[in-house]
Amino acid sequence: MSEDVELMFNSGSVVAVKTCFNHAIEGEVIAFDYNKRVLMIKCPASLGGSSHNNVHLINLDYVTDVQIKKDVKKDDSSSASLPHLDINKVERKTRTAIEERRRLAEAFSGGISDEGIKVFLSLTKTIGNVTWDGKNIIVMNNVEISQPYKPDNCAPHSHAASGDRRAVPSAKNAEAVNYVRQLVEKFWNDQPKENDVKADHPPSNPPSGYSQKSVPHKKQLNKNGSNSSTSSEAKS
Length: 236
Fold this sequence. Notes:
Blueprint lengths: L13 E6 L4 E10 L4 E7 L8 E7 L3 E8 L3 H4 L9 H23 L4 H11 L5 E4 L2 E4 L3 E3 L8 E3 L14 H19 L30 E2 L4 E6 L5
Antiparallel strand pairs: 1-2, 1-5, 2-3, 3-4, 4-11, 6-7, 7-8, 8-9, 10-11
């Protein structure tokens, strides 16, 4: 866009933009960062119900034309309905991402084998509470996976100060060990090896207390200078 054209977009306004990739986007303004020249607009969802929206982040440096279809004055924009943002959810995701990076750094610095790190990362995609105890993987403080991190290396993790692991595990611990063993077995079955037969069914449902992590929604990078995603958090 021409630098001599000064544009301000108020929340609630409806705009139509055309990118340098000849892609047209029309929607309602959610936010506008004047200094960074980034415009956020929402459009009807390409997938999903009426309560969903596609949200686009548009870099105006890649925009060739902007038309304001409906202008909302600055005084009126404060009353515009904005999508709900769950701050607690954002903070939880941030803490989780930082913790996962910290645990991964510990694994690399601790001299863990590549196989151990891969098993660890595979488990963190399904179970949130996965940590290290030396070179052993601890899952939900109940299951311990020792080297070489195969299904047979899954055993109950002792909480007793004596460290006696010969005691017969409780039914709950046995269920947890069996579930983690299935996850580890699936990981190894999914590794590309000759004459290996992959598991044709997923692990059974996790035992009580083992909450599975939801798969994050993936954003799609369009060739139009914008990010597009469908989200239930951006509601009309």
